[in-house]
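Target chain:
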Amino acid sequence: MGLTWKEVVEKFNDGDDSIIDHFGGIENFIKILYKKKILQYIDIESEHIEDYINYCMLLIYDLDKELFINRVVNELSDVVYENGKYYYVENREELSRLFCDTNSRRVDSSSIASRVLSDDGDYFEHFTIDNVDLYDDVIRELNKNNLDHLKKHVVQSLSNTMIEPSTELLESIAEDQDHPDYALILESNINDIFLDSETTEFIFEEYLSEDSSNLMNLYRSSYDSSYSEDIYDDVWSELSRYFVGDGEFITINKGKYSYQTFKVEILNFESEILKFLKENLKYNSTISYYGEYINIIKSMDTCLSIYPRDYPSSVGEHINDLFLDYI
């Protein structure tokens, strides 16, 4: 044929079909160029390659990894390559597409994830919680400092208030104070009162209704906050299959304009891409066809699922953190 290998590649890239025939067909042509370590220079967008793009990309990865990376990243609108790492850079809410619409417990994981990942972050229900037990659900959760603060508050709030002795403990206190018709709440008896759930709840219900309401609201707020954190953690726990950490919002400047978007490091990007190419050797599903890394992941793996917990994990912690805002 009298052509250099460089000329062979140039003729193929210029659309000269006779080059392929000379090598006995496109498959032999690809194999020979690979053995000569020049396959990476052909135009893989050629119509003669369209059924072999994924095969060629795998071979190019072996010949010239840097070129492979550049080609892949250029085909994916939601991926950037910086300092040896791959990043998903796009609207964060798009990640919710990796979650199932429903799972075995009929939970719409995709909708939950969408709310977690949205810019608004409005991802939890503001629950209407019935049957909250003031003593068991709130007071018993208080740490020592907050409990001491509440005791002092009760003593000060009820100073000189005559409390009806409607419980056994209050009857005993009233008798010991030599006025059986009423009891006084003092520093000397406040510890005993708080050890008795019936007496504590009676005092808050009958004499400290505003504080009782505040403590109930504290519980609801703590429940919501804890539930929100749990759902957030559950979403990112699932996403940790593909990403490192929970990312950050960044500002991108383009000339006179700037906009905010989301950025998170991709885990095992190259192995996922190689997996995709190997699984699609006999199909026309190419990287450019999908155009986004999220689409590629969705095409290969089962969707992610969230299973909301029966009870939030850190209600007590939030109660103590928020306590002084309510009392």
